Amino acid sequence: DYRTPLTVVILGASGDLAKKKTYPALFSLYLRSLLPENTIIYGYARSHIELDDFKKRIGSYLKGSEEKKKAFLDLCHYHSGLYDDKSAYDEFDKLIRKEEAKIQSPTSKYNRLFYMAIPPSIFIEVSKGIHGSLIENNGWSRVIVEKPFGRDLESSRVLVSELGRLFKEKDLFRIDHYLGKEMVQNLMVLRFSNAVFEPLWSKSHISNITITFKEDIGTEGRGGYFDQFGIIRDVMQNHLLQVLSLVAMEPPLSLNADDITNEKVRLLRCIQPIKLDEVVLGQYIGTQDGKQEGYLDDKGVPNDSKTPTYAAAVFHVNNPRWRGTPFILKCGKALDERKTEIRIQFKRPDNFLFQDEDISRNELVMRIQPGEAVYLKLLTKKPGLDNSIEQTELDLSYRNRFENLDLPDAYERLILDSIKGDHNLFVRDDELDVAWQIFTPLLKQIESLGCIPEKYVFGSRGPKSADELSKKFGYVRSTGY
Ligand code: BG6
Prior knowledge:
The mean pLDDT is about 95. The longest helix has 26 residues, at about 225-250. The chain is built from 13 helices and 15 strands. It starts with 5 loop residues before the first strand and ends in a 9-residue tail after the last helix. Strands 14-13-12-11-7-10-9-8-15 form a nine-stranded mixed beta sheet, with helices on both faces. The chain is an alpha/beta fold. It binds 6-O-phosphono-beta-D-glucopyranose. 6-O-phosphono-beta-D-glucopyranose binds near residues 177, 215, 234, 235 and 340. Its EC number is 1.1.1.49. It catalyses: D-glucose 6-phosphate + NADP(+) = 6-phospho-D-glucono-1,5-lactone + NADPH + H(+). Pathway: Carbohydrate degradation; pentose phosphate pathway; D-ribulose 5-phosphate from D-glucose 6-phosphate (oxidative stage): step 1/3. One of its GO terms (biological process) is pentose-phosphate shunt, oxidative branch. Belongs to the glucose-6-phosphate dehydrogenase family.
């Protein structure tokens, strides 16, 4: 299939996502010679931008030699047109066909990949626009869509069925870019291929599991968008839930995409309704010195917004493997650091020898970012004459362990998979549905009760109650590490 020319169409090409993620990912694939030999990249958006200006704009986000950048930018075209005008899409299609006709296809086919880097409000409009001449070509036509896939169960179902009328499920690729991250990829390998982990992976040995997402930046001008969704919809309902399902699912029948998704869906169905008193909501305020603005100061955010920028919630998985082991999910913006990690905290061994010591728990930490790492906290005798116990760790930091580490960005992997037609790392419709079933009652409850989020200062650890929640559900903070 790599001999078949490919046209990548980026809808919303003048936006943030396209310039920060989509084009840089395509450029990396280009550098690795992973794009089909004859690839054309066509940007489409409303803004009138001269091609040279457009190239400068995306060029500033590409990392590589000037020569390679230039060669890549030579593949890029730009066309401005309306999103709600059918004839604009027909005109666009003619332009693409003209470009494609300049290339002799060895397979006589031409493939097209549509990347929707557009706001959710115009999802359906644009989908209707490309449906028709643009996707009807003699090769394959695939469509990549970005979250948010709706705001709740109802709107997500509408979106799924509208898109389902226009495109076949096999041609749709719903991105959750967390699935493309290296450490998330590594989860199945770590869990299922290691004799030292696999037998311990259950409530019998694991006391609690925490999945944390922390960002040290606020909404930074994205407040208008963010305020309609909030952190639960922005991060927890998708990225963190995906991580949870990979951590907790039963072994799939095979590595085939459907088998894996079947297990994830089965797991998600076992999650009990989330209780409001097991949830902490927060919203950040500015720092006292005025250097960092609060959420409410972000333009586009209403002064009285109750939208949470931080959330922690406890999930109970009601199945034989996990009944009794809480999963604590935490995510927030404007915190003290940028870090995403999974912490598996083990139970204290039933060992009478050290009963009296207040010792830390064994903990397996998988750091998704920054600085991918897996480390296992364990206890050792303090070296030397001293007989006390100390916590240390077996540490697999990728940067130290693997030479010439060149990890692909999540988007790079996912775009490559969509070109290959591999659905493994994309979200299936029933998976999306069950994710919304889990969160919709909670979101409705929060909104109807008008829950006021707890304030926390920009750059802090987040709301105090979140630490208390973790403690209440068994998380023991280590004493040594
Ligand atoms: C996006 C959210 O899906 O993920 C953003 O909409 C968030 O709010 C981003 O900043 C985080 O992605 P990453 O890859 O930087 O962790």
